[in-house]
Amino acid sequence: MNAQPTQLAGNDGPKVPVEKVETQVMGVAGAGLMLLAGFFLWRELQVRAEVLLVLGASVAAVSAVVLRKLKIQLIGPVVLLGATGLGALWYGATREPLLLAGLVVAFGAAVVLAVLDRRAPAVESGVSRWHRMLSWHGVALAGLVTSFSVYFQIFDASDLSLQDFVARRAILSLGWLLAGVGLVLFGRAQRATEVRDSGFLVLAAAVSKLLIYDTTHLDGLLRVGALAVAGVVLLGSAAVVRRLNAGARAS
Q1: What is the per-residue pLDDT across 102-156, written as a single tens digit (0 to 9) for each?
Q2: How confident is the model at residue 251 (pLDDT cuts 50, 70, 90)?
Q3: 213 pLDDT band (50/70/90 cuts)?
C-alpha cells in the first residue's frame, strides 16, 4: 500500500501536506544561506562584484528549476527576470565583459525553464499560467539583453576594428526580427499565447530599433535594404499567421 502523505491542519484553513511545507522551508532557507555566503564572499575575500552577479544568476537558475513545481514557483522566473534586468543595467553602465557570463547563464536558465513548462501537462491554474508567461517573457528579455551585449562586445568593444562596418547596425535588428517572428509562429501553431506574446515583445524591440536607431545611423541603400527586408519578413509572417488562423477555424 502507498503511504498517504502526512498533513498539517489548521483550525479553519485547508490541510497542507507536511512534505510541501518541509520543501518550501528548506528551499527558502537554502537560498537565504546562499545569498549570505555571497555577501561574505564579496566582503571578506574581496571578490569582484561582477563575479557575484554570475554566481547570483547561477543560483537563480538552479532555484528556478527546483522551485517550479512548488507553491512558491513564481519566485524562480521573477528572480531570473530581476537578475537579467540588473545585469543589463550593470553592463550598460560599465561595459564589463565578465557580466556577459551572468547574462548567458540567465538566458540559458530561462530557456530551460520555458521548455520544461511546455513539456509539462497543461494545467489551468492561475499560478501555472503566470509561471509560463513569466518564463517565456524571461526568454525574450534575456535573449534581447544577452544578444545586444554580445553584439556590442564583438563589434564595438573589441580590437577587431569592425567599427567601420556600417551594415552591422542592421544585423542585430534583423536577427531580433527573425527571432520574434519565429516565436510568434511557433506560439500560434502550438496555441501557446505565452510564446506568441514573448515573440511580439521581441518584434517590438526589433521594430523600435529599426525606426529609432537604424534609420538615423544608416543611409543610402543600407537603410533602404534594412527596412525592405524587415517589411518582407513581417508581410510573409502575416500571411503564414493568416493561414494558421484559417486552418484553426476549419478544424
Answers
A1: 888 888 888 888 888 776 655 556 777 888 888 899 899 999 999 998 888 887 6
A2: low
A3: confident
In the block, cell 499560467 appears at 129
Ordered by start, the domain boundaries in the chain are 16-156, 166-246
